[in-house]
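Researcher: Let's try something more involved. This one mixes different molecule types, so please make sure each is placed in the same coordinate frame as the others.
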Amino acid sequence: MTRVVLVDDHGLFRAGVRAELGEQVEVVGDAGTVEEAVELIGREAPDVVLLDVHMPGGGGVEVIRRVAGTAPGVRFLALSVSDAPDDVISVIRAGARGYVTKTISGPELIDAVRRVAEGDAVFSPRLAGFVLDAFADGPAGVATADPELDQLTDREREVLRLIARGYMYKEIAHRLGISAKTVEAHVSAVLRKLQLSSRHELSRWALERRLVSLDEEESG
Amino acid sequence: MVLPMSADPLAAPPGAAAPRASGRPPRLTRLPSRGYAGGVCAGLADYFAADPLLFRVGFVVLAGFGGLGVALYVAAWAIVPAAVPSEPGDTTRLKAGAAGMRAMVAGAWREAAGIGLLVLAGLLLLRNLGFWPGDAVVWPLVLASSGLALVARQLWGTGASAVTDGGAAELPTTGDTQAASLPGGLLGAMLIVGAAVVFLEATGTLAALREALVGIVVVVVVLGLVFGPWMTRQARALAAERAERIRSQERAEVAAHLHDSVLQTLALIQRRAGDARTVGTLARRQERELRQWLAGVAPAAAEVSLAAALSAAAQEIEELHGVEVEVVSVGDRPLDDRLRALVGAAREAMANAARFSGTEKIDLYAEVAGASVQVFVRDRGTGFDPERVPADRRGLRESIVGRMERHDGRAHVESAPGQGTEVELTMELES
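Model: All components are placed in one shared frame. Result:
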């Protein structure tokens, strides 16, 4: 069974998520601060960490950064009330495998946790929208450092667009006449690009939304 | 003599032509920006719609008669108010802008130089009459009067009585006046000081003053050393206090906002705790409102941009039908009539989904890619067979498909029983 750690500074919310996850996954512990979270994740080595973006002491980004060295196998799924593009993109760039909003239903959350545990990326419609926005076609002739990383393929765009429209991976696969695995591969590729891209527009887009301070850019 | 102004009064600059167009008789004003000295001739010419050269020659000729022209000119300068320089079509002070300010500053220089020259002329006239006060007085007086003119401008704006074309007294805003006349005032002060120095030098009292000056400088430096740090500290404390005041103001604003919005909603939720649907709607509405506020987006923007209008429509549907609409938009465009129709169609599609699909979650996705706008409204509800829509269901045919087609757009409905529904709205815009 998937072993999960909950990190959120609201105790009430942790209790609520615990109840929603129920027997479907094994919640091995929860933490309310960055320190506690780093310690707990190091000790339990869970499959998935459900991570709040906003927390005192650096938030989810800080947890991911500090755990990266000690427990490299742990996967993170960001769970936040924030729908500000800067919060979302910064936690993804720090290494989270996906982002869902706190209003997600119980069954959907369980599904997302499982998919992240299996190494897939989990994109909510909102995140898909942000990514499409970030990789939108800029003015022609802008040189990018690495075209492979800095642009989405047509198929990737198509997949993201369907996610933004509210389609599940399975429905997307059906619509596009490809396998669900291929859909997941596309989403993972997008996630990788999002994390590694130095795309001119992406950083500009991020800066415009006062997102990535320069130090984050360097160490992330 | 070279004429700076056009000889034809009808071709006068538009700023001067404006009062004519209003049909009201123009008031007699000086036009310092267009004249050589105080702008009296230019003003007279404008008033009588004649060539300013006529008046200029007139004054010069009169000056030959015992300085009568000079006296008249000075009197006219003192009595006739200066016109506020205005830009063509300018109706508000806001629009006056940099050009107007430049004109004001240029006017100040010319006025000052003109006054200096007038004083010189007056003194030369006195010499002709056999009274010559001597160089030690003449040059300082010329300098000082120019300087005074500049200083006076700073103190009273553009002359003591600036009038606009409409006749109503309208002093320029403080910022304008200061920006325009500060360098003038500074130069005026320097001219006056220079005049004093010239006078002292000429009368031989400067050497004596020099020693006194050394004493004053020493005292000032000592005072600066003694009180400098204290004054710096005072200034810093003042800045800190100001920052603190701004902070507490912000805090008060946040508190006021939370009180009016979040706390009210929480109170409502407590009272309606039994009604899950209402509570959900209240919470969603409050959440949306709070997010908008945090993002610094004014709610009024709904009338301006496509994304904001769609988001507002989604909110309406949420409140009307107690459903949840997930709005995702990529790109945005200013709202126009066709996009308003698109928003209306999207709203109807959401309302349909809320009423007939049986689900409580609707996805709305809008994408602006170049000149093409696409909106998708999707639900995972019961779905229906689009071929067999009952004839009385006018919403789909009229409000969605019909409306889109009337505005050169397209609507495509994809649905099947048990598969949910997706309405796709497309509009090509002229880029």
